[in-house]
């Protein structure tokens, strides 16, 4: 497993260099380290810090250990993104970015509709006076403004995400998976 980028031999073949996660946790990086392939010694500690703060090192390790090797890289990218989003916006996390992008898409769709209307008007009446085309374009602009206002009102009516769970107590485990982590995903029940 050390060939993928870490372990006891170190990251990228550098002897004695722990992976970024083990460096952050100040522990010895072993050959079976689940984090070594995904957190380099140089930049991995900073990326892992967000995961550790939001999810916890143990929970992240359990999550990765229960995934097939082919899915682990994507899982690391995802939990890193979600952890960094949650640190930037503790209430909404990445949902705030999703809402902002949805609003941007709505505005761009309205602009596209306006541009298509302008093209249709110019093709429909090529010999029309410029004043009649200008009045039609103003009407389209008013319609676009109303559409954008409706979309903004609609996006404000979308209920906010549920409140965060109560603070974690040391005695309660946090599960990142929809199934208990004590059981193997491949073991019969």
Automatic annotation (TrEMBL):
One of its GO terms (cellular component) is nucleus. One of its GO terms (biological process) is hormone-mediated signaling pathway. Residues 156-177 are annotated as: Disordered. InterPro entries: LOB. Belongs to the LOB domain-containing protein family. This is Uncharacterized protein. The lineage of its organism: Eukaryota, Viridiplantae, Streptophyta, Embryophyta, Tracheophyta.
